[in-house]
Amino acid sequence: MPKLVDHQERREAIARALWRVVDQHGWTRATLREVAGEAGVSLGMLQHYFASRTAMLIFAMEFAADRTADRITRGLATLDQPPHPRDVLRLVLTEMLPLHADARASSRMSAAYVLEALHDPVLRKQATLGLRDGRSMVERLVREAIAQGQIAPDRDPDVETDLIIALTGFTPLLELEVIEPRAALAAIDQHLDRLFGSLVGP
Amino acid sequence: MPKLVDHQERREAIARALWRVVDQHGWTRATLREVAGEAGVSLGMLQHYFASRTAMLIFAMEFAADRTADRITRGLATLDQPPHPRDVLRLVLTEMLPLHADARASSRMSAAYVLEALHDPVLRKQATLGLRDGRSMVERLVREAIAQGQIAPDRDPDVETDLIIALTGFTPLLELEVIEPRAALAAIDQHLDRLFGSLVGP
Fold this sequence. Notes:
2 copies of one chain form a homodimer.
Chain A: H1 2-25, H2 32-39, H3 43-49, H4 53-77, H5 85-96, H6 101-117, H7 121-147, H8 157-166, H9 171-175, H10 181-195
DNA-binding region (chains A, B): 31-50
Keywords (chains A, B): DNA-binding, Repressor, Transcription, Transcription regulation
Organism (chains A, B): Promicromonospora kroppenstedtii
């Protein structure tokens, strides 16, 4: 079915154009018209693929989430097998922070999407589901690590999950260069080392 | 100088109108025209006080920062004297998270401001200064607590400062109701209890 493949490719090309607009010029410039220009298609063509700005944003965020998942999957393949949950959590966190170009584009999209979602019920539902999925994935890793004795049994899995996810709070500090990437990574490593009880002196 | 006082009051009324627009309708609606309507002044009057949207945003953020500082000062007065640094840090964090209406409005302003700042050099400079000030205040508290033996001397003050500030990463989770306020507060308490080495059972 070559036609369907073309459709998906065109939609992905438009999503990438939206990321570029958000990354380079900010969310307020991410109108259908601006994105059509960036994607090199007519406004009519873009509207053939996305009936509304909301539909375009939802597709672009889902596509960004898929790409992040792909990067994590590729990263997992480079870890010791089976991977240690500490390494998996570190990988997930580093892919969610704006530490390289792809992750930065996703991170900016995501931050803007959350703000827009506060005032748009359809976006809000999608954004909430996305954040809940991310939280559930981290919670599963934490619970498995507790079950397997890699995290002390007296740690509360809900609290530890939330503390790990809070580390995405480095995003504005990194974006505005208040802290450097190596400082964010040092703090993440410190937090995970303590969680996994492997804090032996230098 | 009654004229000067009037000016400041008018500017603050406009800043509050901007917060309401951002809080209720989102950043993309926060145009000069929309804010003038919300403040009940003409567009020309608003432009008399703020020559540009950027000037208005900078004033509104500075005013928001002042109000947050006022809330923290009022909170400090309710703590044991002299206040324990753990309690001060908890107060600062809870005032930075969207846990009540005023803090929520500031938090939404701040998140949108950071995103806008990425693509506007003037805003960027202001936003960076604001974040650096906040980080310095937390770092000073952490260093004092280490010096006074309230935090163990082997803790790295830079890493601990960054880990505390990262807790503002609960913002999107709270805004989208992925976690409840009491879960965020439980995680903050757990983190501070460990930092201050006072983890004794309930």
